[in-house]
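dude i think i finally got it to work??
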Amino acid sequence: MTVVVTGAAGHLGGNLVRALLARGVHVRALVHRDRRAIAGLPLEVVPGDLGDREALRRAFDGASVVYHAAAHISILGGERALLERINVIGTRNVVGACLEAGVRRLVHVSSIHALAQGPLDAPVGESRPLVGGDHCTPYGRSKAAAEAEVQAGRARGLDAIILNPTAIIGPYDFRPSHFGEVLLDLARGRLPALVAGGFDWVDARDVADAAIRAAETAPDGARYLLSGHYVALTEIAALVEEFTGRPAPRFVCPIALARLGAPLAVAVARLIHRRPLFTPISIETLCGNRHISHERATRELGYSPRPFRQAIADTLRWFVESGYLHCELKIDPDQESPCSNPPSSMA
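look at this
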């Protein structure tokens, strides 16, 4: 059996590929340019991107399952065209290629941001409507539109599952992700202040495991919210201080002040040629719904997100072992390294 992973070289994709290989599955990876996350792994690689329909046809030929994890994640307001091209039109191309190739099942990785967060005093579940209108973020709108493309494919006979993970953390974060950069800045003492907010964070390994179980057992058309744990940025900084010895920032910026300062933070980041981490969109994200239910995934998939403390420890240790972070961690030495599997002897 051959399965295909789009976005295989991304954060989730790198974890998903490893989970599939550990199960003895033949994996074919669609990869654009950066191959660090899959270097040395025993898999088949098809070069191409979501706009290359011929590459998609080659990648999906003979595949039983396609895991569509490729996407552009954005916390900026000026990337609408890029988000449309990759997240929406790219998903349309994936759906078309699946139908053409006769793929048995598509597992589409969406986002919690595709779903309406309000009312904030009620848990977010699978029945929440998709976002729309001018009050949602460009990224959220693009992921909602991508889901519409999947549903259009289902109307044409495609068997598809939709997953909505929260903010993904965890090892194999090669690029690194926005949150990975925040962790690194905290561990290096480069973050001068924190923001008084938080979010729901989930380990990429837990999302990968749920995706595989959904491919195997979920009914056609099912949606699963894959949440983890709501944790404030101040709590995260305290964990990083505990594990690295690097003092956490003492100043915690109120949300109202952070909203005012976010445009300036974006301008400064661009001036020093760094990717901005605290933007108007990311600040608003930290004020979202704290209650995101994974009850359906737990009931139907056996989904059980690992403790947040373990996820942070494993992520930091992976950063150290991979050369991104140079410090001695204060973590249980008997805890298994996240880099210890799967086998990677084949090119």
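The radius of gyration is 19 Å.
im so relieved honestly
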